[in-house]
Structures
1.
Amino acid sequence: MKALSALVLVSLLAPGSECLAMSKKRTAVEGRIHFAKDIPDKQAQAMIQDLNLLRSMDIQSSDPEFVKKLKLDHVDARSMEDWLAERVQYIVGENFNIQQAAYVDRPYFSFENENQSPVLEYPTATPHSTPGSRVVTVMSNIGGAVYFAGKKAGTLYGVKIPGIGKIPLSSPRVGLLEVGEGMFITTKTLKKVGTESKAGQLIRLATLFHEARHSDGHGTSLGFFHAVCPKGHDYEGYSACDRNLNGAYTIGAQVTKALLESCSTCSEAEREALKMEYLDSASRVIQETPMSQGELDAEIQRLTDSQSVCPIYQQFPDMKDVPEVCKNPDAVTKQIEELRAHPPGTPSVDWDDAPEGRRS
Amino acid sequence: MNHRAWAIGIIGCAALFAAAGIGFAKRSPEQGSAAAPQAGASPITALTPVIAKAPGSSRQPEAEFSRWSVQVLKTLPTRESLRQLTDEEAHRTPLSVQDAAEELGRIAQAIHDTPAFAEEGREFYRKCAAAEELLTAVRALCFADFTRLDQRLGESEAPAVPQTVRALAAQLPSGV
């Protein structure tokens, strides 16, 4: 009861903070982000406090990519909040049963970019199983996945959110996330004594921004789906990388870096934790995709074919406009050898982040 | 209700969650300890502030720090240890990596609080950055810390690290 009174008091006193205990409806960012009834109070409280912390921060960023990737108008907490609230609207708990909660809102629904779908990459890693271990949810963007499933089926699905009601998933921007216990498991340093450190909160915020990015994109960029990490990568074979320069890992990394630069009271140990978080995310951005074997074979064939006309020019030495490949056939041979030895790659680029559909 | 569409949708939904991993982030609470051997780091860690600050201690704080850092090096996650993760666990920073951050945080804090540890600290970061079996992100953090200390103490021989580690470390903001 004491704790409850204190909470009400803190809610009333803290500017910009959201009222938790006085109302059944738990919200953050001026009522723009709603926490479903099934989320334990402790978890909702923690996330509301995280968002209040963000609001209270004087955001600094020395990296121009931060503004560029998030397309922010200003480097400040308000702009970051707005960015988040445009992509996250509802957060449900880890026991949320999508199969029970989903319903058909409109069959035969006409979706935008109907004939365009993102390329899905399937993980190839086969982890050693750890018997008896329990996997807990950290956070996932289930709204984007349900929207995409609906688009595939030509049906607009909706979900019934506990304590909120029926919400049609007419766009990934409806912003439906699932949060679980894993989001709140932190190491000892991040917990401090009896309370939580700022770094722990900041890492959670970065996770929220990461997930929010999955509400973006349209057509082939829809949902900013992850890519399978390439051979030789630390996370090789896992669907834990991005094949673009502005996906969820980039957003998470950029936000972590900005929060690190803005945390004036973080200890050396906390800074180190934030740096690790940043590096782990940044390391998952694939900078270049090597040419596939098929593409390589085709390119070699093209070069080989280009030499097929050379015997004609050799037969008639007076012919004009001799192609370059026939003037120096050794150069083409060298080019083919070089291709085989060092197949070129396609550099990753920013994906179009304009959203598909709209909130209804 | 269109039952067929419904069924397709739900199956599609489940398959997409599993296959595409859109924003999926799950992990095991046991993951950290399973992936990173503990090697007795905690008791030594707990002793460190005492060692560093105890007046007239018979132990050499620098030597003690050095011993501790050798233990920490053994606990850092390897690339191989990541193979134990499920796809969902790999989606977000695994607990073993967070544990590593915690240990590296303690090292950084100890060096910050006790400048006499800087020389041993630099040696620790050199070994950590050069360790090929460790995660790229861990090596990059160690390389950045090595560089920072190296600038302070006077340049020494840099560890042999691949370009990926250097490039990643260079992305960290300076002065934080």
Note: Chain A touches chain B through 81 residues (CB under 8 Å).
2.
Amino acid sequence: MKRIKHTLKIIFTIFRLSFGKFTAYRLNLLFFLFSTFVWLATAFLFFEGIFGNVDSLVGYDKADMFLFLGIGQLVFVVWASVITATNDLDSLIRTYDLDIYLLKPVNQMLFTTLRRFNFDIVMSLFSASVNFVIAFRMKSYEITLINVMLFIVSFCLCMMVLYLIQLLFNLSYFWAPRSDAKYLANEFWNSMRYPIEIYGKNIFSFILTFVLPFLIIVNVPYHALVGDLEMWWLAVLCIYIFVIYIFTSWLWRVGVKRYCDVD
Amino acid sequence: MKKYWTYFKQRLQVRLAYKFHVIIEFLTSLIPLALKVVIWRAVLLNTGDVRGYGLNEFLVYYVLTLGVSFFYRTTVFYLVQRGVREGGFSGMLVKPWSFIGFMFTDTFSDLVNKLLTRGPIFLIMILAVSRIRSGLDIVWFDIPILLTYLMLYFVFTFFWELIFVQLIFIAKSGSGIHGTLYNLRQLLSGKMLPVDVLPGWLSGALLFLPFANGFFLPINFMMGEVSYGELGVGALKLIGYLIVVLLFLRITWPKIIKNYAGVGI
């Protein structure tokens, strides 16, 4: 109980400090909001280019793609607001500022990589909700309470997977501080916005589904929401999270040991 | 001029020290390119071509976007944001040179660095694509014409971004402004998809603006879809927009600098 209270206190402090930063640059927020409008227009344009010429894309119509985009945008909000600090690891290692976080009496890996909340990105929730509204106006989906609950569970599991994959890429900085691994992960990020079927059945789609499962991050919650998710996906996600968490924790310990040696 | 040349050489030297970084960055940019081709491949499963674009043409188009993108990457935002936030900007202002010239030199060194480090990979890709796929239609004497055109686009985008950079002095943060401009570029230039794939009225509207003129038009020229005359008209439009932007900056830039307090936050 004391441990939970302590953790909650830390999370609250992180939120408070992040909110302070958020309010310090108010005008910048307006631009963030405008930026989401422009991003939305880009998505419309892209879909106009595609669905102006075909009725469906590998079995998905325009409404489905908007729903995909909405979930993808939700993933982006969580990724860029909560997981954002994971991407600082390279600079922390290069400047030896990681020492500060290693001295804290908490879980070092989780604290270092989740220590900041980026409120700016919350503006993108607007574009996510617009996508949902468009999708539901274009097509009547049968959404039940169970679907919604499955969506929430699968979404949370997928976000954990995304965090761990991102962390896995970033942990390489302990060995190669200028490896640009995070940019590689960021580029893979774009692949998850589309249905798996687009990629066909080949070795790359297999790797991006089961080894570095970027493709399932949006696909699984989407199918949970529309009610055609095969339940074994949830078991696969749980096993994957367990295995990859053990692996990243081990890799973190080895990396920190190496970092100390270098320092 | 000598001081700018010295600064250019110094910046280029620094940038070339991280050439491996630049090459890796370029290689990672191939992932979204491949993704776009995969999406269009899926679209083309249902239809033979999309307004004259088959898979070959889409592949050539997106490879060419990589090369043209070299000419629209400015470093001004980061320079100014750091300077304004930390108060170091005043140090730049007291130097015996034009600050805009200093920023342009930095951005230009970035362009030269990209052409030197990424350019060869891009050329290999172009050669590979032109041998395997049809759709590329340029002759050797087109290269200086294209480079001149793209340099015009580069100069325009530099000053265009400078208009928005001024907002950093007020907002004290440039991330939202930078994000807006990035998304605008994606939206208006034709980087996401060829402008002529869009409905006629929309592509017409986009081609009236400078971004599609600077980005999409030279790509279409290389693909043999645009004549020298049309490229010339595109260049004139760009020059027109550049003049408007310069006139705007001439009024606003001195006022912004005058009001700058020189105190970091």
Note: The first helix of chain B runs from residue 2 to 17.
3.
Amino acid sequence: MIHFVLASCLPLVVFGGVAPGIDPVRDVPRQPLEASVQRLVEAMKFLGEPLPDSVISELQFLRNETDDARVVASIQTALDTRCLAVVSINPESRVKVAAGPLTPQLIEKGWRNFLVKVVNEAGVTAPLRCNSPQANKMVRGSSSAAEPKMEISPAESNRRWLDIEMPVQEPMLPNLSGIEVE
Amino acid sequence: MLFRALPSQSVALSIRDHDGKPTTCALLIQDPQGRVYPNPARRLAPDFFFHPQIYRADGETVTLPAGTYRITATRGPEYLPVSFEYAVSEQDDAPKLQIQLQRWVHMANLGWFSGDHHVHAAGCAHYENPTQGVTPEDMMRHIIGEDLNIGCVLSWGPCWYHQKQFFDGKVSKLSRSDYLMRYDVEVSGFPSSHAGHLCLLNLVEDDYPNTQRIEDWPSWTVPILKWGQSQGGIVGYSHSGWGLALPDYLPDGSRGALPGTWGGANNKQSGRAADRLPDYAMPPFDGIGANEYIVASPLGACDFISTVDTPAVWELNIWYHTLNCGLRSRISGETDFPCIYGERVGLGRIYVELDPKLSLSYNHWVQGLLDGRSFVGDGLSQLTHFRVNDVAMGHPGSGEEISQLDLAKPGKVTVTTRVAAMLPEKQSDAGAAIQARRLDEKPYWHLERSRIQGTRDVPVELIVNGEVAAKQTIAADGNWKDLQWEIDLDRSSWIAIRIFPSLHTNPIFVEVADRPIRVNRRSAEWCRRAVDVCWEKKRPQIREAERDEAEQAYDQARGYYDRILAEIDSDTP
């Protein structure tokens, strides 16, 4: 199970089924969306899992288009199918999460990079955090106790097989930007 | 959400030593993004989660997803790092990786066997869940992977009651002919810790008499050292420099504030870290290093003090002063893994010379430590054949006295040795950063600090009575250099070789006209005053019931140094 949490909001953590199909969010200013997508493209390249050439070409093509509404919708269409999850924040800052269209596939002992679409109706600018019971620390460091308590048993440790990192270093940003979709 | 995980490749490893024999080494595996494999956050022993590297033996495997990697193989400081690109393909059903290791020096072949007398299997960077530290098998893997001939795994406060099950008063059954491991004790996290932590080696019994719990042990160190010696143990103080900090030098040459407890500039009156030996400034004696050593050594209760894991000047200063007062406790080298250094076992080490006719045994090795037939350091510089006239370090000399040369009258002696060192031809940015650091910042001992700026050369210093008597420069190119000095000795003296701060030998003692070593009044006064400073700091933490006995021991030490002062000729410096 994976949880998404807004660091400064009341967390409402849901993994409630699969998003049946992601409708593009229409009322989004083009410029900040384009800028965030450009950061995403660079970040995926840096992380060793660049977006496919077809997606890059489509995004490049859209940069020269003049119909802002169509560009905003098309950017989302190009990326939505690559989203593992869709996080929705309603105007009251309540959060819900649904599975995205991407097949959730990992690699043993390796890293995979996934996109998460955030529909941010509240304009929240808190950090988005992702966690999971399986991603908790496998071990408890030394407390220097001569007889330490057993709180993470070997069996429990083995259940903690997952590691999650949210790339927040440049070109990505540590916080949500507050725009309607990113 | 249910994830499906695609299998990665199991890469079969062929790891060959310099002579083609299978061995174990350290592997650092990184992808082009710099991510380390296996992921440290998901490691359990034998892979340590606080390491980037892992240790694998020939014939073992490592699981890697398809991709390209930069792999660096190392095996301790006697080897040259081997670095290469390696690609794992999805199409390859049985990927193989061959690694050929390369040495620049092979000390064991020359009769010198490396050891680290202070590593831990629990506490500090180790975990206490899901298990209480790691197992002897895990420690043995790391010892072999760092080409450490002797690994002394010391149980101590953290996880004491679990880890002590591995102590049996013998060399571990996991040992091999050329790599030995023994479990012993560090008295740390015990009531006496305030006076200095203790390494007790070669013990038969690991519980102090009439104790059930850690809390029952003595609250000062001398009784524990004596108990260790009484059972045939070899005993000394750990991480000697702690509590023995020395004040900075200010730009005008005056002394400023003490640095931080663990080194590094203090905010007030900081300048250049203390860099001269001997240093006659008085340390605070407020830490867990060789503090009560100033009392234990004249009582004959301390066989060695530890070096290489705290600032070199702090460690060596107290030792030099006591040598100047005729005492003969030796130095040994340690890492205090994974506390002071978690990087690897054997980062700080001692090399002990053994009789080439005998196979490696722990008893012979620890006897060599006791006899001072040894040098300490980071392993990046090496030494053999240290002699004064015909007396070799750690061997029987005049009158069969170990390491002692007797001269009928003052005169010339000839000092000889062979030295080799290895630095990259050109200093890397990392090397330059090490050299630029204060001497009390990590790594405290490192050959890069010795590099003569803009060259590959390092100075080899001849130390007489704590002062540099002569110096020669060698190229740190891995080749052995024969060195020789002729020096005049006008009185009884101790002589050592050092490459500061990378290598330091134990002394050879020269007694002239049957006079014991009494170097100067200043060292004797320093030691005498140090006993008082130490007593003031330690007394409040010694149990009332033990305080009289402790005070008597401190008085004995005062008496020793007072006698030295009385014996020193009034015309000595």
Note: The two ends of chain A are 23 Å apart (CA to CA).
4.
Amino acid sequence: MQIILIGGGKLTYFLTKEFTRRGSSTTVINYSPLEAQTLAWETTATIIIGDGSDPLVLRDAGAHQADVLVALTSKDDVNLVACQIAMHQYGVPRTIALLNDPDYREAF
Amino acid sequence: MAQSLYIVIIGCGRLGAALANRLSRQGHSVVVVDDNEAAFRALSSEFGGFHLVGDAAELSVLRRADIQRADALLAVTGEDTLNLMVAQIGRTVFQVEQVMARVFDPARETIYRAFNIATISLAVDDFMRHLENDLAG
């Protein structure tokens, strides 16, 4: 299975470790070069430095072939737009967005 | 725009403030939202609307701006993703009649045309118009 994760922090780190351990081909998109470097050292995933809501970055991450995209940043708008671009532009069958503001549960 | 409309503007940068000042001068009720209080200094002294400090990515902030009552919603912050999310929330959750989002990156713009969200990318549109005029002339 091919998985793209967008974001950083512990949540992204542990999910990346879990997915790679299960043998999924995992790519992480992280905005911070420093955090991306740490992730690259500590996991076996492919790490891309960039904005996950940018269609060109998603293309570089292999969105065309991805089975799942999980957007885990602390910004709801970035998570939503990344999932929508992945779904509509690259045909990713399953996308999951982290909602930081619980009020959006009803809205989405 | 003969009658007075209720217009919510997200983002009080150069574009947001200029729109707010002009629409207010035309007699419309305007609310401007920005998460930076200092941004509202760009509003002119004749601006007769309201301003609201808050992050528009928060649903409660949009509710406080009374977005459900708005005739038009203009999402003109410096962040493409925020503009696109607010525009979609305005359209689908609050059924605002006229919704516009400013988008800087043309690569993002294409898919939102499909969602029926009107997007404005000023620089590209302006350059193209001038270029086409020059070439035609």
Note: The mean pLDDT of chain A is 95.
